[in-house]
Write a structure and sequence with these properties.
Layout lengths: L1 H12 L8 H6 L12 E6 L4 E6 L2 E9 L19 E11 L3 E6 L4 H9 L13 E3 L9 H5 L9 E3 L1 H10 L5 E5 L1
Parallel strand pairs: 1-8, 6-7
Antiparallel strand pairs: 1-2, 2-3, 3-7, 4-5, 4-8, 5-6
Amino acid sequence: MKKMMWYCLLVLIFPLSSFNNENDLYTVRLNPSSIDADKVFLLVDKSEYRMYLYEDVTLIKIYKVVFGNKDMSDKQIQGDRRTPEGTFRILSKRIDNRWNRFMLLDYPNAASYEKSRSRGLSANTDIGGGIGIHGVESASGINDSYVEQRINWTLGCVSMKDRDVAELYNIIKVGTPVVIRR
């Protein structure tokens, strides 16, 4: 838990717009063997349509991403197609026929349920689940251009270009912290 708090503090301390070589951070191809997966965490910024990959305190890659719908507010209930905000962990990961790669988040977690109760929702309210990070859905005609054009199409997940999600999949491990904010 202390490590997770450290990541949250780190995200608040380091401004993301101060990098001179930001364009390079979109195109650099990473070598998973040169990255310490134990020091990796992800920051997803919904307002910027970006995912930032950090190794310890160093920003090593920026990915373009899209979400559920245009309403960028926090997920509240099952079916609202919103992407949840908070601090999560990668619960599992798998190669997926539909989305190329899928990395399941531990949403809803204890903090998600607490937030739901603080909003006045009953304990019986279904706040959703099955939220993860994945590629596009090419078989349905949804391709990488959706990510480039910021077309939100998921049911609340974070979607990336197929090449990017394959790269990320090879870098992160189960347990990797993921902070999603607006």
